[in-house]
């Protein structure tokens, strides 16, 4: 349990000695860029980096290795990316962050939903209003068409967030999760400005 709370190696590259080494901190500080997933989510999508190097390492540490301590730092990275996009005029100032939905079983196995936790750690307003039908399959082993089919009708809106929102996820691969999330929000009259992810595969 101590390793989960006080890891002894870098979450980005596994170098012994620090939560995040200097090289990974520098890599994570890169400004966000617009990306264009195959399944267009109906609004602009921005990624804070590629699914490689430190970004990939941090995501895998959070999701596959229950690295709880790095989620706070990932929240700071998300906050910096959001503020950069605000300053550039790509997203509205003080938009509410809406975490993309995750399977409840996955969240339990990971010590909580990593995406919701990094949103909260960012210090921005957060509205966790999206849920996923428990019958939806794990997306990781599915191709693009199967991901779209798997999420068709599976994303639910549990409450209406106020104001303009930005949907947040850890990784955008095909865009299916973001598309389903944005679509249900728009269908209920929610003003969705953009999507932001930690990285793009």
UniProtKB/TrEMBL annotation:
<dbReference type="InterPro" id="IPR029057">
    <property type="entry name" value="PRTase-like"/>
</dbReference>
<dbReference type="Pfam" id="PF00156">
    <property type="entry name" value="Pribosyltran"/>
</dbReference>
<feature type="domain" description="Phosphoribosyltransferase">
    <location>
        <begin position="160"/>
        <end position="200"/>
    </location>
</feature>
<dbReference type="InterPro" id="IPR000836">
    <property type="entry name" value="PRTase_dom"/>
</dbReference>
<protein>
    <submittedName>
        <fullName>ComF family protein</fullName>
    </submittedName>
</protein>
<dbReference type="InterPro" id="IPR051910">
    <property type="entry name" value="ComF/GntX_DNA_util-trans"/>
</dbReference>
<comment type="similarity">
    <text>Belongs to the ComF/GntX family.</text>
</comment>
